[in-house]
Amino acid sequence: GTATTSEESSSELEYSLNGSFHCSNIHHDAIHLKDFNCDFGLTTEEIQLDEITAGIANGQITGSYHQHGKDFGGRFSFDNLDIQQLFQQTNNFGQSKITSQNISGQLTGAATVNASYAPDGSISKKTLWMESDITIHNGRLRNYTPLIQLVDFIEQNKMLSVFTNEAELREKLSDVEFKDLSNTLFVQEGQIIIPEMSIESSAFDITAKGSQTFDGAIDYNIGFNIFEVLRNKENGSDKGRNNIFIHMYGTTETPQFEVEKELIKLPDVKLPSILQERRDDVRDNHPNESDTELEG
User: Fold this and answer.
1) DSSP 8-state symbol, 216
2) Please, is 223 exposed, middle or buried when counting C-beta atoms within 10 Å of its C-beta (0-12, 13-18, 19+)?
3) Which of 44, 115, 164, 230 lies deepest, with the highest CB count within 10 Å?
């Protein structure tokens, strides 16, 4: 790469370093980046990485990164990432509630992130704020505990169990496939917020929204057509209408369920001022890119 430096200070060394960087392979724990490239700018207090490109999990990422002290942020795009490999390389993003053994598919999208580093060098989960537009192609969710326990709830509910083939439903929910799933996810104050979305899956078609914390606390609301779910999907009556809503809450290990009359309102998503400034910069520099409307 190339670099220029300047240093002058009456009390301590100050520096400014600019250049470009390339590395064919970067390994950090299980993470493997291929053909990493970026332009960089370093000063005593700041790090700026632009024009980042790299291969990861059989896909490609591009973006930019800025750090001032322990605070950092960035904007990244990702294309055709293998979700199972991504979870494997990141050690399931530091959690055990949904792992590479549960989920697979191809991930495409973009994310804006803002957070701070903790004293031990890890990302402080309480400071993490992220907005991510994602699409999962050819997705698959296997042996996900809350879905399996949903069957237990239906079996115990007198109204629902009358129509249920529990063995068939349990088999369907133990291995759910979906062709395409798109949504905008938010992370704030230690929880992931999932706005309302429609999912056409191999088990049944549902409307869902909710939130989940990094510690495994869940609060989801699921709507589906009772005839489509409990009888034959192809021959069910009132196809397309959500006439049963189930509130799933508690934890991923011990979820609880209640039948509701409608989808429950999600909490507002608050946009930190630094993120608003960064989104304004993106809008000014890329006027054709659409923004997601946020409440608050």
Assistant:
1) S
2) buried
3) 230
With contact defined as beta carbons under 8 Å apart, do 59 and 105 qualify? Answer: no
242: phi then psi, degrees, rounded to nearest 5: -85, 110
pLDDT digits (tens, 9 = 90+) for 47-60: 999 999 999 999 99
State if pTM tops 0.85: no
CB burial of residue 229 (10 Å; 0-12, 13-18, 19+) = buried
* Phi and psi torsions of 223, nearest 5°: -120, 140
Is residue 94 scored above 70 in pLDDT? yes
Give, in order, the Cα–Cα distances in Å from 203 to each of 34, 211, 218, 219, 252.
37, 22, 21, 21, 20
How far is 201 from 205, CA to CA, in rounded Å?
6
Task: Give the pair of three-digit tokens for residue 31.
Answer: 């993470």
Q: What span, in angstroms and rounded, lies between the C-alpha atoms of 133 and 197?
A: 13
The pLDDT tens digits for 236-291 are 444 445 478 889 999 988 889 998 875 555 455 555 554 555 555 544 544 444 44
Q: Using an 8 Å Cβ cutoff, are 115 and 128 in contact? A: yes
CB 265 within 8 A of CB 295: no
Contact predicate 89/107, CB 8 Å: no
